């Protein structure tokens, strides 16, 4: 493998068992048991850890079926706010590799690293670097495939999943592809596969040696041409850089509509703490604090305020959210739901380039980082603010993050 790959170089990065891995990362007790993320009684399995998979549990399966296959397994309700925050952290890391990042889903992206090699080294080095940083910063694993096209890169990452890296040398593409079953090619679903099987084609090599006119007739002009090209490793589709709107936040629906400013204040603090914790976990800081208030009649208002410096500190986010709330001047308005989020996210190592211990209010950040470490090792209730240990909600953050339900998403 040469140090610099000629032509376009595309990297596909896919988190392994994303929701399940994120839950295990923040809950030590889940690291040694089979579990899945999804409804406990009804609903489907969204993501299963690799231990549960050994029992045959897999994503998309009905939860009741998973329960029969693995009676001792733990069902963890999903916490999409948290997965979104971890995802934002991963994508912030991608943005430091290249400005050509295309999100395929919350846990999967294509990166055009053609122009990154001069700055960051060989494709393999870039891939190893991404894997190490995802592991260090988010405590989860990912699989990386690197090749001269998107479809090949994805195929490569799938082959080494979980926790692997495969760089496909341009000279080895055909040897890699031709023995594979057609199902492994990107875009070949069950319908296409069955059409190909009817033509007697079951491997990529057989497709490659079939006249393109035959493929175009059977599959349609576009799909036939694409498959013929891809079977020889020709894959010209581009990675589209996107502007992603990113924010990290949390919201709470009260068990009963409330007009008690004290109760709202406690919730604002809880959500500021949760938001700040997610930001630190994601390695992100932000300057714009956004407050959402929904009233009993379901009308919603949004107010935002911008801080002088990006932050990931609870007290700074809480103070601004509280000020925004007070500026509404609500008199006995019945509130149904409140939400706090932070926008204008930047990587923390940029926001905190210089140690700011001389500024007294930033000392709080060191305290919170130390508490994060305790939570990572021992679970959530090991470090909690006194004001937040009172339960006032229908859906309070519980002692075992992920095992019981967390603040609602609308
Ligand atoms: Mg994935």
UniProtKB/TrEMBL annotation:
The keyword Plastid does not apply. GO terms for molecular function: damaged DNA binding; DNA-directed DNA polymerase activity; magnesium ion binding. Residues 394-410 have a biased composition (Polar residues). The keyword Transcription does not apply. Mg(2+) binds at residues 14, 107. GO terms for cellular component: cytosol. It is an enzyme of class 2 (transferase). This is DNA polymerase IV. It comes from Propionibacterium freudenreichii subsp. shermanii (strain ATCC 9614 / DSM 4902 / CIP 103027 / NCIMB 8099 / CIRM-BIA1).
